[in-house]
Amino acid sequence: MTREHRRRAIVEAAYRLIADAGFEGFRVRTVALHVGINHATLLHYFPSKEVLVEAVLEHMLEELRQEGYRHGEICAMDALCQEFVDMRKRLIDQPEFLTVLNELQLRAHRDPLIAVPMERMDRAWRHYLSGLLVKGMTSGELRSDLVVDSVVNVLILQFRGFGLRALDLHNEQALDGMIAMECAMLRQWLMTQ
């Protein structure tokens, strides 16, 4: 197994362990067992638990980036609504993704070593959303009087709230109804008349 394949296997095992046991049940030794290596070997790849968590977050961020690239050149409002659709798809295809993300977000409030990579992930998301808003405002699709930073804060609250609520819903129709409502509210709030 190449070094890169081994690193990826370790990150994926850590991701699955956080999804299954939560951060409180996350142990580096257990990750090593899942990968079939000893603890010292794992530490050769990731010298601390925090570095391993940072790699898990980077892996998740890369998945989100790839998702964003697939949207291509759609209009800003459609891209914002697509965020909800993508979240729904992820809930169906990878329910553990939002579980891990929420687990680490909560942990970041109590653990400054987790907060740093979470802040980096948050900055990337804010940058993406800000870019969408500016694009929409520049094209005339979105209202020109929007305060980008404030709108981004509200959007993130909406996305996170949707993600938390959606974890409890196992009904695809209910998820679709929530997405339709969220998109209608965003259109009413953000679009030019």
Please, could you describe this protein's structure?
The protein is built from nine helices and no strands. The protein has helices spanning 3-21, 28-35, 39-45, 49-70, 76-93, 95-108, 112-139, 148-168, 172-190.
State the gist of this model.
By secondary structure, the chain is mainly alpha-helical. It is built from nine helices and no strands.
Give the overall average pLDDT: 90
Order of helices and strands: HHHHHHHHH
Number of helices: 9
| End-to-end separation | 58 Å
Helix content: over 70%
- What's the architecture of the largest domain, going by CATH? Orthogonal Bundle
Secondary structure blueprint with pairings:
Layout: H1 3-21, H2 28-35, H3 39-45, H4 49-70, H5 76-93, H6 95-108, H7 112-139, H8 148-168, H9 172-190
Helix pairs in contact: 1-2, 1-4, 1-6, 4-7, 5-6, 5-7, 5-8, 5-9, 6-7, 6-8, 7-8
Distinctive features:
193 residues; single chain; Arc Repressor Mutant, subunit A; mainly alpha; elongated
